[in-house]
C-alpha cells in the first residue's frame, strides 16, 4: 500500500491551511454564522471538491477530499463553521450528485457548488431520533407531485439553508416506505422555526423546519420513490465519514497546543511535561490521531473503489468521536484553570466536541450497527 | 503585449517571521508585487505573462503558484550548475532564458530579494539584454504596445517617465500576501506544463555559471529589528490635541513635555 501523498494533494492541503488561517479564524464568528466566510469558502472552490467539472466542481477523489478536510479541521478553529460546510457538501449536495436524476443535478448543483444555495438534510423528528424510520412526516402523492406534511427537528443549517433533502413516509405499509425529496426553502408551505440555542457548534445555526401542505413537484424525488431508506443509509455513511474527518485535524491542532503548553509551563521547578500524568495524555492523543488516519485512508480508498463502507464508517465515527472528546477533555486538564476560562479556546473546543457522540447516529447506535453487521462479514 | 516577470523563490521563514506558512518556499515579496502589476495589465489589456525563475528542484511549487495566480507560462531554469550564482551569473542565466523564450515587450522585476538583498538583477539583466531600464517604479500609469508610462518615486520627489518598449522596469515595493488562489485555479495550474531548461538547453558551458563564476557570495542574511522610540501622550483630549498640533508643526519640545 502506498501512503504517500501526491504533489497535487500536498499543494491542495497546504493551500487550504493557508487560506483558512488567513480568512476563517475570526473570533467574532466563533459563535455565530458568517455569510462572508461562506462566500470566501465558495470562491476558494472547496464546496465542489468531488463534484464533476461540468457542475463547476474539481472532480477530485474521495481520498483527496479527506486529506483536504482533515487539513480544514486542523486549520479552522471555528468547528461550527466546519460543520456548516460538511452538512452542505456531504449530506445535501453530494446526495443530489450521486443519487439525483439529471434534472435535479442540472437544476441545483451549479448553484450549490458556487455557494449561491446552501444545503441541509432533514431526517430527525421530535419522536424519531435514533429510531429515524419511525418518522411521522408524510408525503401524499397526487397527479403532479407530492404534498408534504410534518415537522423536522434539530436541522443543522436549517435557518440558512435554501435546499433541504427531506425524508418522509410515502407508504404506510409494514414496514413503512420512505422517500427522499429535494425541497426548496421557497416552496409554499415551508416554514423555518426559531434558531435553537446549543451548548456548542454555534456558528452552525440549527432549527426546526415545518412542512405544512408543502407541494413538491414529482421531479424532485431524490433517488427512487419508496427507496428512501436505502438513501438514508447512504447519507449516513457519507456523514459518518466526512463529518468526522475534520475532527482528526482538530485533534492534531489541540495536541500541538498541549504539547507546546507542557513544554513551556513550569511548576515545582520543572516543565509540567516531565510529569508522565500529562505527557501520557499527549501520547494517547497522538495514538488516536494516527489510528484515526489509518481508518480514514481505508474508507477513502473504499469509496474511491466505489465500494460500501457502512460498517467501517460506523467504526470510524465511534472511534474518532470518543477520542475527539477525550482529547478535548484531556486538553482541559492539561491547561488547568486556564483551559476552563473563556480566554483560551479549550473550553469552546470541548463544548463543540461533545455533540459528536450524538450527531450522525449516537455512539450507542454505532455499536449496535457494528455488532449487527458482524453477521454479514 | 508580452510580459516576462522574473521571479525568485525564497524560504518562507525569511518572509513570514511570526506566521508559519505551509510551503517551504514562497514567491519573493518584491517579485510578487511585480507579478501582481503584470496581472493588473492583463486584466485590462490582451497580453500574456511568462514567469521565469532560476532555482533548484524544490521550487517547482512556486512556479505552479505563479501559474495559479495568473501567469500563462512558466519557465524554470534548473541545473545543479546554476547553484551558488551571484547577480552577475544570475543575470547571465536569466538573459539566456529570456532570449530563448523569444520576443517580448516588457520585463518586470522586483527591486531585490529578501535572501540576497543586492538589488542588482533588474539593472544587470537590462544591460545584458541591451534594453532600457527604469528602477524605483511605483506604478504603471499607462501602456500601449509601443511604450509604457510609469511613476517613479524618490524620497523627495516623483517623476513620470515614458519609455519605449521593449524595456525592463523594476518595482521598488513589495507585497507579502498573495491573493487567494482558488483550488480550481491551482488544479488548472498543476495541469500546465512548466518548461524546464538546463544549461544544455540554454546552450552554454556549465563552467560559465554557478559558484565557479560568482564574483560575490552571500554568507548570511539576518533580519534586523529596528525599534523606534515611542512616547505616550497623556492628558485630556484638549491637551493631546495641543501636543499633536505642535508635533505636526514641528514645534514640539520633547524635553519640556511631561
Summarize this entry quickly.
Chain A has 377 residues and is α+β, with helices and mostly antiparallel strands.
Distance between the termini of chain B: 61 Å
According to CATH, the homologous superfamily of the largest domain in chain B is HUPs
Tell me the CATH architecture of the largest domain in chain A.
Up-down Bundle
Number of strands of chain A: 10
Largest interface: which pair?
A-B, 22 and 17 residues
CATH 2nd-level architecture of the largest domain in chain B: 3-Layer(aba) Sandwich
Q: How many individual helices of chain B?
A: 6
Q: What count of structural domains of chain B?
A: 2
Helix content of chain B: 25-40%
Name given to the CATH homologous superfamily of the largest domain in chain A: Butyryl-CoA Dehydrogenase, subunit A, domain 3
Number of domains of chain A: 3
Shape summary of chain B: globular
By oligomeric state, this entry counts as heterodimer
Catalogue the unreliable spans of chain A.
Answer: none
Protein name (chain B): Electron transfer flavoprotein small subunit
Pfam families (chain B): ETF
Domain Electron transfer flavoprotein alpha/beta-subunit N-terminal (chain B): 17-206
GO molecular function (chain B): electron transfer activity
